[in-house]
Amino acid sequence: MELEAIPGVGAKTAESLAELDDPERALRDGDVAELASAPGVTPGRAARIARAAIRAKHDDPGGFLGTDRAREIHRELLSLLQARAVTDYAARRLETFYPSARRSRIEEARAVTASAMEREPTDAVLDALHDVEPVAEPGDVRVRERCLATTDAERYSAARQAFPELSVEIVEDARGLAELARGYATVIALDERFGGIDVEGDVRVRPDALDEPVEIVPERPLAFFSRNRDCLRAAVAVHRESDLDAPCDLDALTSGLDRLDADGAVAGDDELDRLEDALDDLDDVVVAAEDLANAQLKDAIVEQDVTIEGSDLLSLVERGAGADSLLSRELADEYDAAVDAARTHLIEGLALDDAEAEVAARAFPDEATFPVAHEADVVARLREDLQAAMDRRAGERKRDLANTLAGMRADAETLVRQALEIDVELAIARFAADYDCALPVFVDDDAGDPATVGGTEGEAPDGVDAGSAPDIEIVGGRSPVLDEPPDRIDPVDYEIDGVRLLSGVNSGGKTSTLDLVAAVVALAHMGLPVPADSVRLRRFDGLHYHAKTQGTLDAGAFESTVRDFADLATGADGGLVLVDELESITEPGASAKIIAGILEALAERDATAVFVSHLADEIRETAGYDVPVDGIEATGLVNGELQVDRSPVPDHLARSTPELIVEKLATEAGSEGVSDDGTAGSGNPRESADGGSDPADFYDRLLAKFG
Ligand SMILES: Nc1ncnc2c1ncn2[C@@H]1O[C@H](COP(=O)(O)OP(=O)(O)OP(=O)(O)O)[C@@H](O)[C@H]1O
Q1: 347 has a pLDDT exceeding 90
Q2: Would you say residue 139 has pLDDT above 90?
Q3: Ligand 1 in reach of 504 Cβ (< 6 A)
Q4: Which of 348, 476, 492, 688 has the most CB within a 10 Å radius?
Q5: Domain 462-654 is classified in which CATH homologous superfamily?
Q6: Quick one: where's region Disordered (predicted)?
């Protein structure tokens, strides 16, 4: 895919995207996280790029949402879905679900939805998802205890390029290697000519180094796994909890991760731990051993009666020395015992092995002295030996672990990607469960092709013929954008065919019905499930939902609204038109004429449209064809509140709220004029006591005006 061919991707963004490992895959899969990892590409922009790439793939001109209200409904739906995603990735990825008029795009999104609706969002999976995030590249790795050495300038620059983590040194000969070995724990010689040389220190000859990066720098693969350790563990848990097919052996990956520290060091190796502890404790244990010997020896001296011969005393006094020789002669056994105790303390305290113990034993001298003092150079040698053993061991363990894990990197990345994708599906599944959704059935509008999207291949669902099916049929629809808790929402049935008016009492739910239709149509064209028992609809080219205007428009705004409707009524767009109380734009008489004209033009073009209006009668009178009117009917007034059946009654002009109230007044006034025994209270029930006319007459007169 030519990156710059994607709308909105300029040369600079294309350059950034080209830095990704596989930008085409990321674009193809709508992998927003991967796109957002390109330099300078924010997550929001990544979502827009992914959407544009999807549109380009489906040759989709976009612009399905034709009005502000349509876009608002889409935004609300998206937020409801995003609120059900655990990861930021899934929230962004959901933005790539946009309403499209293209059958291929709708089918592509529906495939994800179909799989999503099989998923069960258990608490355990959702918990595990909290720690999943797109894998991160580890920062620069720097290994200071190992270096590469060569005599060859060309090999030198190749090695520098291949191993930025290590120092690379030029040496003249074996002496140069030996010198390096004094400064580095391990020196890796790259030249064959060094094979078989005998140099002190850990010097390895590896002419194959450039082909074996894991052997030479095991830290490199390990850095990826340690950087992403928590996320990988969480991705493993997501796979286990959701029975997802894993791309690798989860036990092997987990045990590898268990052997790794957060900083890339090897964990859980007893020998390595022993060496590390011994190094940490060395100074303290030496001092403690020395103190022990001195305390023991002091006690022995205090308890001892020393008989000193006169000649010895003389020699002591004359030479001012010789107490040590006296000590070794008189207290040799006690000294040996004290030094033995010190050596044992040192060896056991540091859990040294035999070879280390042999060195450690020399830390306390055989020759008697008081106080007993350790040999600093022997302790230094012991430290060097322990450090070298630790470096060797750590290197071996790292190489082992790196060899196990390096081959799992691609699978580990897939593991995380799958876990993130599952979050997208679970968000859809949770939305579907919360709003009792069903997958809508598209009754295809392609001429001569009754195939359905989502219905039985090649035939219309339940025998419905594309020619005779209504444009939209909603059964048990529950508007997700209604500001009511789901259990307080009355399900609505509504069938829309052609261009129609929707009448009804105030607050009967006309606007909410338009919202429901808009939400259902938007979700269906996003390839998502709809909040209804069932929905059948034809594929629309766009959604033009005009919300009610607040108050009468001034001349300029009125003119531009009429222009908008001119575009709608004369354009080639096969979109769905929803309009709420357009009459509020100007005075009622003029409004009815304008609405009638728009309806005529739309009907001539076989459009699908619903116009909510309180002027249904006036519009019908003016319109040049028989405009169908549906009605949301009040079933009565209880305690001053309207009882409403929210489902529009087809081909029925609903009575208005004023009519219902006048009817109620007329009924009440009529029954007040009749006495308990059913006879008239006065000779003339329509005559009031003071001789004026009865209010019931007045109410009847008003009622008669409603026809
Ligand atoms: N299907 C429904 N289930 C439950 N409550 C609903 C439903 N539809 C509407 N309502 C309630 O009725 C209120 C009024 O609805 P809505 O604004 O859609 O009526 P309307 O007929 O457009 O009113 P108006 O004629 O005044 O513009 C909503 O705020 C909501 O509380």
Answers
A1: yes
A2: no
A3: yes
A4: 492
A5: P-loop containing nucleotide triphosphate hydrolases (3.40.50.300)
A6: 450-469, 665-697
Residues 26 and 6 sit within 8 Å (Cβ to Cβ): no
Say yes or no: CB of residue 511 within 6 Å of ligand 1.
yes
CA of 265 to the centre of ligand 1 (A): 63
50-82 confidence digits (pLDDT tens): 999 999 889 999 999 999 999 999 999 999 999
Among residues 368, 478, 406, 484, the alpha carbon closest in space to that of 222 is found at: 406
- What lies within 8 Å, CB to CB, of 383 at 6+ separation is 279, 282
At 205 the pLDDT is: 93
Whether 644 lines ligand 1, by a CB cut-off of 6 Å, is: no
Paired residues of 453 in beta bridges: 442
What confidence category does residue 664 fall into, taking pLDDT thresholds of 50, 70 and 90? Answer: confident
CA of 475 to the centre of ligand 1 (A): 18
Residue 296, CA distances (Å) to 323, 327, 341, 427 in order: 18, 14, 9, 73
Q: Mean of the per-residue pLDDT values for the chain?
A: 86
Protein residue with least CA distance to atom 7, ligand 1 = 509
User: Does 447 score more than 50 pLDDT?
Assistant: no
Report the pLDDT value the prediction gives residue 423, as an integer from 0 to 100.
95
Q: Is 508 annotated as a binding residue?
A: yes
Measured CA to CA, the distance from residue 48 to residue 43 in angstroms comes to 9
Predicted confidence (pLDDT) at residue 552 exceeds the cutoff of 90: no
Q: Cβ(155) to ligand 1 under 6 A?
A: no
Tell me if 510 CB under 6 Å of ligand 1.
yes
Query: Per-residue pLDDT tens for 277-314?
Result: 999 999 999 999 999 999 998 888 888 776 777 777 77
**Closest-lying ligand 1 atom to the alpha carbon of residue 512:** 18
Q: Is 507 in the pocket of ligand 1 (CB under 6 A)?
A: yes
Strand partners, 147: 167, 187
> What's residue 323's pLDDT?
62
In 3D space, the residue among 116, 98, 95, 94 whose CA is nearest the CA of residue 106 turns out to be 98
pTM: 0.79
Burial code (b: 16+ CB inside 10 Å, e: under 16) for 361-372 equals bbbbeeebebeb
| CA geometry: angle 108, 109, 114, nearest 5 deg | 100
Whether residue 670 contacts residue 662, with contact meaning beta carbons closer than 8 Å, is answered with no
User: Is residue 461's pLDDT more than 50?
Assistant: no
Mean pLDDT of 344-367: 93
The angle that helices 270-303 and 376-406 make with each other, rounded to 10 degrees, is 160
Report the percentage of the chain scoring pLDDT > 70. Answer: 90
Q: What is the pLDDT of residue 460?
A: 42
Ligand 1 close to Cβ of residue 509 (< 6 A): yes
Q: How far is the CA of 646 from the centre of ligand 1 (A)?
A: 8
**624 marked as part of a ligand binding site:** no
Q: How far apart are CA 178 and CA 201, in angstroms?
A: 7
511 known ligand binder: yes
- Consult the annotation and say whether 510 binds a ligand: yes
Is there a binding annotation on residue 509?
Answer: yes
* Distance separating alpha carbons of residues 359 and 355, to the nearest angstrom: 7
Residue 216, Cα to own-chain centre: how many angstroms?
36
Higher pLDDT, 50 or 556: 50
Ligand 1: does its nearest atom lie under 6 Å from the Cβ of 489? yes
Which among 16, 48, 43 is positioned nearest to 3, based on CA atoms?
Answer: 16
Residue 266 known to bind ligand = no
